[in-house]
């Protein structure tokens, strides 16, 4: 296999790869961060599994899925991130999993402090604020300066750990959904450990486009999606809990379908999307066959760099994500500095250039437009974006 950097620039290969996906005619989709497409073969497998479970109903579910298939699928998901199966529980998505981890974290007492930042996902913020209402803790919210650097991000957290000595728990987002900034997780987690602060990691946008392992990251709790860059059907995600820290997360609302020593007790027990889960082995096989996160990440980074390098120095546009390779991935945001309403400019991109993007607000650095190429995005699509940004600025 050619090295990933060289392959990332091979338009002929990626056009062939794109043929594996059915794409609806219409705007060029540069908002691929919402969820990823399933390949044609995955859609076909998913449809077969829908029909299978519809025919066999609870006979298959109880005799085969509950006893054997679900355990094998769980083990394959654990293998995806290089951990033991006992460290993983399947969820519907990262948000569900992160909420479970936050609400069931049991090492808080009234008067303790928990930490969030301006770039956290709103669901994570609301879950941490729920702790304030029902556990009597104080929520500390910090803001990251712009432009960000590796050192400035780490310094902001180090300062918070010193200024707020009652901190016990923090949320941390690996790839921020607002700007695409990649947080230096390993360094921040190490600093948090020095001050006895636990980290709950939101990895929703990281899995599938950034290579990592949990031992290196140094986090004990995390939630992930399988429907973004892995290519699984919607309704699939998982949580990770370091087995040595399982007792620090209570069973979810007294969940007793599994023993308290089983991580699966940390999520709500319900009927899962069995056809989607049965499709997951094929999804993971396709992910591995194409080179996994290394290959996908290299392609997405190439597309990102193609447009960022073309507009970075132009007046009238500001790229919100730094060029330090430790701090970016395929997702990057831009702002039209001469226009106050970024939503209006996103609409202009769609109306005038047939480019579908998404406006994002909530970051201390201000509103922006998130640009997220996908695995079916072409260099020609990116060149159209470059022209649009240049003309609209």
TrEMBL record:
Keyword Transferase in annotation: yes
Pfam families: Aminotran_5
Domain Aminotransferase class V: 45-382
Gene Ontology molecular functions: transaminase activity
SUPFAM superfamilies cross-referenced by the UniProt entry: PLP-dependent transferases
The entry's keywords: Aminotransferase, Pyridoxal phosphate, Transferase
InterPro entries assigned to the protein according to its UniProt record, in alphabetical order: Aminotrans_V_dom, PyrdxlP-dep_Trfase, PyrdxlP-dep_Trfase_major, PyrdxlP-dep_Trfase_small
The protein's name in its UniProt record: Class V aminotransferase
Native source organism of the sequence: Pseudomonas silesiensis
